[in-house]
Write a structure and sequence with these properties.
With 460 residues, the chain is of the alpha+beta class. Among the domains are: 90 residues, no CATH class; 153 residues, no CATH class. The chain is built from 17 helices and eleven strands. Strands 3-2-1-4-5-11-8-7-6 form a nine-stranded mixed beta sheet, with helices on both faces. Strand 6 and strand 7 form a beta hairpin. The longest helix is centred in the C-terminal third of the chain and has 19 residues.
C-alpha cells in the first residue's frame, strides 16, 4: 500500500476538469500527440503547483509532484519525472506563440459559459511584477527583414522587462505589468494583457477597454480608476460604458470639491457614512454625470490629511529659515522679499514678523580713529509660520471628498448610489493582485530567463 498526500489539490483539479481546461488547451494549441504528457496536462500541473502553498519554482517542479498522486491528478501514465523543466519550457513557448491574451480570452469565455458568470459590469486595474536579473531584450531586426509577404503573419513581440513605476516600491528592480479586467460577479478574470515594465496606465487603459469590447459581445459597464480619466481616453472609448474616478488634479475637480454644500444639489443616499451631490458636466467633449461623494469617516480621520499638512509645514519652515538668514542692504528689499514669500503661501500665513537692524562684525585690529566712520548696517527678517484658520477644514474636505464620473446619463438605470457601490466593488481586482503577490503562493517569483516565457508564465 502506498499513501500519497492529496490535500486541497483535488478540489483545484476538480474545478479545472469541470472547466475542461486541459481539453481546451490541447484543442486550441493543436499540440502534437506526446507519449507522456500533453500541453494541457502541463498547464494543469502548473496551476496545481502555484496553488500548492509551497515555495517550489520551476526547476523543482518534478520534486513537488513526487509526494502527490500524480496520475490521479493529471491522468494515467503521467509521472513526476515527465514534468521536467524542458517540458515546461516547451509548454510556455507554445502558449506564447499562440498569444497570451487570446488564450486567456478563450479560457475565460469557457468559464463564463460553464458557470453562468454575469459580465454586465467589469473592473479594470493593473499591477507591476518585479523580477531579478538582466533580461536583455532582443535586438530589433533590420527594416528590410520586417517586410512581410501577404501570406505571412507577423510574429508575436515579447514584452520588455524594464524599470518603470513600481507598485512594490522597488524602483531598483526591472518589472513587467499585468493588466486585468474582472467581472463584478465573483471577480472572475475576463481579459488579460501582459505589458512592458514601463507602460503607463493612463495610456493603456483605454486601449484595453477597446480590445475587450472587440472580443466580448456583452455591453459591459467598465469601472476604472483615475488613471484612465483624461481627454484622449474619453474620446477613444466614446461608444463604451464607463465609470471612473476623476483625478483631483483637474482644475474643475478642485473647484467642485471646494464648493460649499449649500451650493450643491443633494442626492438621496441611505448609506450611513456617505453624502452625495450630483452635477452635469462636459469634459473632453463628452456629456457625463459627476457624483461628488463625501465620506464622514474619512473626514474625521486625521491620519488621512494631517501628515500631508505637516509635510507642507516642514517644507515651508525650511524656506522661511533660509529667508530669515539672508542679510538685505535696505529695509525695502527685506520687506519686498517678505511680501513675495507671504504671497506664495496657500495653507499658512506669517505672524509676528519684523525687520531688524544688524551690524557686521568689526574687522580685527585696532579700530580706526577717523571721524565719521561707522560700521556697515544690514537688515534681517524675523517671522513665524502659522496655519490659516480655514486650512484644517479645507484639508478635511479635500481628503474626505472624491468625484465619480460616468457617461451613463440615465439616472433611473444608474442612480448615484448604485454608481458608488459599483466603484467600491473594484477592490476585487486589487484583492486578486494581492493573492498573486502573497509569498505563501510563490506565484510572483519568476525563474525563467526569456521575456516570452515570462509573459506565458504571467498568463498562468
Amino acid at each position: 500500500m502506498q499513501v500519497d498526500n492529496l490535500d486541497h489539490l483535488g478540489l483545484v483539479a476538480g474545478i479545472i476538469d469541470e472547466l475542461g481546461l486541459v481539453e481546451l488547451t490541447d484543442k486550441i494549441l493543436n499540440g502534437k500527440p506526446r507519449v507522456h504528457v500533453t500541453t494541457g496536462q502541463v498547464v494543469k500541473a502548473m496551476l496545481l503547483n502555484c496553488m500548492g502553498f509551497v515555495s517550489a519554482p520551476l526547476y523543482l517542479f518534478s520534486e513537488f509532484f513526487e509526494s502527490k498522486p500524480t496520475e490521479h491528478l493529471l491522468g494515467a501514465g503521467v509521472k513526476p519525472e515527465h514534468l521536467n523543466d524542458d517540458r515546461l519550457g516547451r509548454a510556455l513557448d507554445e502558449l506564447y506563440e499562440y498569444g497570451t491574451s487570446q488564450f486567456f480570452l478563450e479560457a475565460s469565455i469557457a468559464a463564463v459559459e460553464k458557470f453562468g458568470v454575469d459580465v454586465s459590469q467589469g473592473q479594470l486595474d493593473s499591477t507591476s511584477m518585479a523580477v531579478d536579473g538582466e533580461y536583455k531584450q532582443a535586438e530589433p531586426q533590420a527594416s528590410e527583414e520586417l517586410v512581410l509577404k501577404p501570406e505571412e503573419e507577423a510574429e508575436p513581440v515579447a514584452i520588455e522587462i524594464v524599470r518603470g513605476y513600481s507598485r512594490d516600491h522597488r524602483p531598483d528592480l526591472k518589472q513587467f505589468m499585468i493588466n486585468l479586467i474582472c467581472s463584478r460577479d465573483g471577480g472572475v478574470p475576463l481579459w488579460l494583457k501582459v505589458g512592458n515594465g514601463n507602460d503607463s496606465d493612463s495610456q493603456e487603459f483605454a486601449q484595453l477597454m477597446v480590445d475587450f469590447k472587440s472580443n466580448w459581445t456583452a455591453n459591459t459597464m467598465m469601472v476604472v480608476d483615475a488613471a484612465f480619466y483624461n481627454e484622449p481616453n474619453l474620446q477613444k472609448v466614446k461608444s463604451l460604458k464607463w465609470l471612473s474616478r476623476v483625478p483631483q488634479t483637474l482644475k474643475i475637480a478642485k473647484q467642485l470639491i471646494a464648493t460649499a454644500e449649500e451650493e450643491l444639489t443633494p442626492v438621496l443616499c441611505d448609506l450611513e457614512d456617505y453624502r452625495m451631490w450630483e452635477v452635469k458636466q462636459n469634459y473632453g467633449g463628452i456629456e457625463q454625470r459627476w457624483i461628488l461623494i463625501e465620506s464622514q469617516s474619512r473626514k474625521a480621520d486625521e491620519s488621512l490629511w494631517e501628515p500631508e499638512l505637516k509635510k507642507i509645514e516642514k517644507r515651508l519652515n525650511r524656506q522661511l529659515k533660509a529667508l530669515t538668514q539672508q542679510i538685505f542692504a535696505c529695509k525695502p528689499d527685506a520687506m519686498e522679499a517678505l511680501l513675495n514669500f507671504q504671497a506664495s503661501l496657500e495653507t499658512h500665513t506669517l505672524s509676528s514678523y519684523s525687520v531688524e537692524t544688524i551690524r557686521t562684525k568689526r574687522s580685527p585690529g585696532r579700530p580706526a580713529r577717523e571721524k565719521g566712520q561707522t560700521d556697515i548696517e544690514g537688515y534681517q527678517l524675523k517671522a513665524e509660520l502659522v496655519r490659516k484658520e480655514t486650512t484644517t477644514e479645507e484639508f478635511q474636505q479635500k481628503r474626505s471628498r472624491f468625484i465619480l464620473a460616468t457617461n451613463q446619463l440615465d439616472e433611473k438605470e444608474w442612480p448615484a448610489q448604485k454608481l458608488l457601490e459599483e466603484y467600491k466593488n473594484q477592490q476585487k481586482v486589487e484583492r486578486g493582485f494581492r493573492f498573486l503577490k502573497d509569498p505563501l503562493f510563490f506565484t510572483s517569483s519568476v525563474f525563467v530567463n526569456t521575456p516570452s516565457r515570462v509573459e506565458a508564465l504571467a498568463l498562468l
